[in-house]
Amino acid sequence: MRLIALLILLIPGVIAVLGIKLIRDTLFGIFHPVFFHIGIQFVAGILFIIGGLAFIGGFIVHRDRKRNLTKK
């Protein structure tokens, strides 16, 4: 069961890391041809970071609420 939870958290973690890489590449002027404009690449990086961290945070809050570890 723990292995499945690790795999569920690994994918959004990789997406968040990809978002950090996209923002770093944008700041250093490295353009990926998948995106049409460097500004779109920056926004996509921010969305990847927010989405990945939100999923991981939601997963942890859901687990803690299920085990009654959060305050009411």
UniProtKB/TrEMBL annotation:
InterPro entries documented for this protein: Uncharacterised_YqzF (IPR020138)
Keywords: Membrane, Transmembrane, Transmembrane helix
Organism: Thalassobacillus hwangdonensis
Protein name: DUF2627 family protein
Entry's transmembrane regions: 40-62
